[in-house]
Amino acid sequence: MRPTQSVWNQIDEAFRLWASGDVRSARARLEALHAAGWHHAYIHLGLAYTARDSGDLDAATAAAEAVLVDEPANAAAMLVKADSLHALGHKAEALALYSTALKVPLPPGPAPVLVRDLDRAAAIIREHAADVARFVDDRLSATGVLPHAPPRFLQSLSIQRGQRRVYAQRPIQYYYPGLAAIEFFDTSSFPWVTGLESAADIIRDEALTVLVDRSRLKPYVEKDHGPQLADVDIAGSTKWTAFFLYKSGKVVEENAAACPRTMAALSSVPLASAGGAMPSVLFSVLEPGAHIPPHHGMTNTRLICHLPIVAPEKCSLRVGAEEREWRYGKTLVFDDTIEHEAWNRSTETRIVLLFDVWRPELDPTERRAVSEYLAAQSSSETVQ
């Protein structure tokens, strides 16, 4: 039978008694209603709560299951059943049910008891995960894997434990398969880095000379061009500007002529090349307080390189799950098709020499094919 208004009043009173701590009286009222033939999810849920809080775990489980027969997505009933299973020693089943309950969308204005129980479930899951992590780490230490494991292995543990998000490559123009999604590359893998870094002072002095005339700087993101930035439109902004030596695969003759030593330092760098597309070489200037919002680059066949030549503190670059500060004369090499963003939290201007190089995994035949393809795609804009 469906509850009448009088029965609803008794159900409400039973819940008030339970909330006040009078579990025995609340359970007695709900059991009387059930024995009289009244059946509703709220009655079963109240029985589940009061049986659980009375320590009658089998009855709590049965009452919660009765709710779930009619309402399979009832998070409150899941939590009571999970509590009972957990207390009875069925930890794996309980953890699975806690996890399921946490994924159920909350109704508008959820009851405080539900919010409390969900928070407690999340804490139980976190505590269990921490216990498992400690056990695994102890085993890995005993076998000698920790504490000196390879960085990628340590990243894998962080991902497995939900401490690190996995970011995919999402190029906005051209995707090349089979290239690993690596956020920051080990610069020791690039033989040209040492020579370039040794020229940092020369490059800095040349950049500061040409940038005395700030009118030579152009917005890095022009109107209707450049990367697609989430939420914030900085196209045409003077907070992020550039002095181009190469732009869209072509030398900017006037600017390059003003920076001969920088151009010479770049002569040993394997710049990515594709007519009308790559390389780009520039002094990237980020003003105090500027934030470059999350975005993705054009193609994963190249890597973006930064040689910081004016690097105040509190200036950093996030690529995927990893954030690094720029350090004067220390090159960063990263995959810009992985979501990235940057900040200048200082009171000074930050300047890096920015350029793109080929992915080292691409052999000469692949580089030529990619170069010709991107050049053709660039030229196709003229096709009517």
Mean pLDDT: 92
Say how many strands there are: 11
SSE topology string: HHHHHHHHHHEEEHHEEEEEEEEH
**Which residue ranges are poorly predicted, with pLDDT under 50 across at least 5 consecutive positions?**
none
Structural class: alpha+beta
Strand percent estimate = 15-25%
Distance between the amino and carboxyl termini: 73 Å
**Helical amount among residues, as a percent range?**
40-55%
Please give the radius of gyration in angstroms.
Answer: 31 Å
Task: Categorize the overall geometry.
Answer: elongated
Describe this entry's structure for a reader:
There is one protein chain. The chain has 384 residues and is an alpha+beta fold. Helix content is 44%, strand content 15%. It has 13 helices and 11 strands. The chain has helices at residues 5-20, 23-35, 41-53, 57-70, 75-87, 91-103, 112-142, 151-160, 193-198, 200-210, 253-258, 260-265, 364-379; strands at 218-219, 240-247, 250-251, 281-286, 291-295, 302-310, 315-319, 322-325, 332-334, 340-344, 350-358. Strand 7 and strand 8 (322-325) form a beta hairpin. Helix 1 (5-20) runs antiparallel to helix 2. The model has no long low-confidence stretch (mean pLDDT 92).
